[in-house]
Design goal:
The complex is a heterodimer of chains A (394) and B (108). Chain A is of the alpha/beta class. Chain A has nine helices and 19 strands. With 108 residues, chain B is mainly alpha-helical. Chain B has a domain of 61 residues: Orthogonal Bundle (Arc Repressor Mutant, subunit A). The interface between A and B is large, with 47 and 38 residues. The complex binds flavin-adenine dinucleotide.
Chain lengths: 394, 108
């Protein structure tokens, strides 16, 4: 049972978390688990209505930067226990991720990435094209140059994870307000003092920005400039068929990804280099395009011919919140006490959220600095301390 | 009691729908994802209105006050082979978005 209060918001709170996606709810849960009281989550629409509910649910540890590998690795361990911990089936399935490439030029970085992943104890391995057939027998390998595979990667159902975090947070006293919009932030003298919502004001010393694609405009309300840009990404689901595709297949050459859900549907998407970058919510346009369906169908049938007779049932779109180095922005900013954020996930914030939330909550409640959060702080851009992750797909 | 089916594609009964409602899935958006109502082959053509009526009954409000979930393309499922054979259309709304984009860093 997820209680969703309908009346006015409380007059005071120890923290207000903006965003009822996986990040906002995971952080609320992690703070409550560490003993924080009087927590409020604001979601202007329904739970999961932002990027989270539109995402592919993919969870992989095959990254090229150590921070992303570590966060994803800890998150996989979290997803392995989440259903029991939260008390809701998450449909987490470790069918693996098969990352393929058609470009000779990727092989070097792919081998290096596998070595880095292995040094972090991620059990990935490099595969020759014909070895991919052991994992996906019907794959067309004629254009492939190489691949990497990790059996421990997988997928989960985003809505279940969101509801699980909501339910477990509510059990610990977190108040979750849906259909409640943050309108204004009260701040002055270098600190946060409160928020104004369409259901009343809340005095609070701590504001956590988990607004996904809207985080840039929320940060601007308190004078924090984020380098994030927002991009539309489309995705689709096919009719159901018998289980016959074990892993998520993902191409770093053309950006297609597809997997089979536990209901038997193929879920997949493909990035479009022609999509514009936006930086204002009034520009966001998540209408579906025939162009996407055609591009996806071409790439899917080329990689995986048995899909030809399968039917596309529904397509939709969501926003990526993209940073210059494709890594999230976590933590606070100097000179503004009580402001924290977890955003800029660049299309992989579902898989990184459980551990980003746990580390951030620990840092907030104990005051102990966290190495990974520090290396992913907003300050890294000013320091010039950025190393882009090369394996961004979608 | 006999079993009453609300969504034939996903085999959801009125009873299951009501139980989900009582478990806190109080809106169509959440009920759809939790029970599967409207997510099958017909994409809600046969059950979305029925479900909204049932939800209105459970909440004791006028059905006109129940917001429905989005209808998305395609209208009828299409094979990937059919879709792959179509000409590639340009990005929709490119003109409008290009005009809207006033990005000082790009200098437009
Ligand atoms: C098509 C697609 C596929 C993807 N596939 C994957 C994948 O396979 N794996 C993966 O890890 N990631 C994937 N992602 C990325 C992933 O969805 C996001 O990184 C992640 O969901 C971000 O979660 P969040 O909680 O930070 O943001 P969101 O889920 O966007 O939540 C932010 C919430 O804040 C609310 N909000 C905003 N402003 C306000 C306000 N003023 N007042 C109140 N509420 C407000 C919004 O309504 C929203 O619900 C995909 C994304 C897309 C679009």
């Amino acid at each position: 049972m997820i209680p969703l209060p309908e009346g006015p918001v409380p007059a005071t709170a120890d923290a207000v978390i903006v965003g009822g996606g996986i990040n906002g709810l995971a952080i609320a849960y992690e703070l409550a688990r560490r003993g924080m009281k009087h927590l409020v989550v604001l979601e202007r629409d329904y739970l999961g209505s932002g990027s989270t509910g539109r995402c592919g649910g993919g969870i992989r540890q095959q990254w090229t930067t150590e921070e992303n590998i570590r966060l994803a690795q800890e998150s996989v361990a979290a997803f392995e226990r989440l259903a029991g911990e939260l008390g809701l089936q998450t449909f987490f399935r470790q069918g693996g991720y098969l990352m393929v490439t058609e470009d000779e030029s990727h092989l070097d970085s792919m081998r290096k990435a596998v070595a880095l992943q292995n040094s972090c104890q991620v059990p990935s391995r490099f595969l020759e094209p014909r070895e991919c057939l052991e994992i996906v027998p019907q794959l067309d390998i004629s254009r492939l140059k190489g691949a990497s595979f990790c059996q421990k990667d997988g997928t989960a159902y985003p809505f279940s994870v969101v509801w699980g975090y909501a339910k477990a947070s509510a059990r610990r006293g977190v108040q979750i307000f849906i259909r409640t919009r943050l309108l204004e932030v009260r701040h002055g003298d270098g600190r946060i003092t409160g928020v104004v919502t369409d259901r009343g004001e809340i005095a609070t010393p701590l504001l956590i920005n988990c607004a996904g694609p809207w985080s840039r405009s929320l940060a601007a309300m308190v004078g924090v400039q984020l380098p994030n840009r927002q991009e539309r990404h489309e995705i689709m689901v096919s009719e159901s068929c018998k289980p016959f595709l074990d892993p998520m297949v993902i191409s770093i050459s053309d950006g297609i990804y597809f997997s089979q859900s536990m209901r038997g549907e193929i879920v997949g998407g493909i990035g479009d280099p022609q999509e514009p970058h936006w930086d204002r919510p009034d520009q966001f346009d998540t209408r579906s395009q025939l162009r996407f369906a055609v591009r996806f169908a071409r790439a899917l049938t080329a990689y995986w011919p048995p899909a030809r007779q399968l039917r596309l049932m529904r397509q939709w779109a969501g926003m990526y919140d993209v940073t210059p180095d494709h890594r999230p922005i976590l933590g606070g900013v100097p000179g503004l006490e009580g402001y924290q954020m977890a955003c800029g996930y660049s299309g992989h914030g579902f898989m990184l959220a459980p551990m980003a939330a746990s580390r951030l909550a620990k840092q907030i409640t104990t005051g102990e600095p966290d190495k990974i959060i520090d290396s992913l702080s907003l300050a890294r851009f000013a320091r010039g301390d950025i190393e882009a992750d090369a394996f961004v797909v979608g | 009691m006999s079993k009453r089916i609300l969504c034939r594609c996903e085999d959801v009964t009125i009873e299951e729908f009501g139980k989900a409602y009582r478990d806190g899935f109080a809106e169509m958006e959440a009920l759809k994802r939790f029970t599967g109502v409207g997510t099958g082959f017909c994409q809600g053509k046969g059950c979305l209105c029925e479900s909204a009526l049932e939800l209105a009954r459970l909440r004791g409000i006028d059905p006109a006050q129940i917001p429905l979930t989005n209808i998305r393309p395609p209208i009828e499922p299409l094979t990937f082979e059919e879709l792959a054979s179509l000409d590639l259309p340009p990005l929709m709304g490119e003109m409008e978005t290009a005009l809207l984009r006033k990005d000082p860093e790009v200098g437009s």
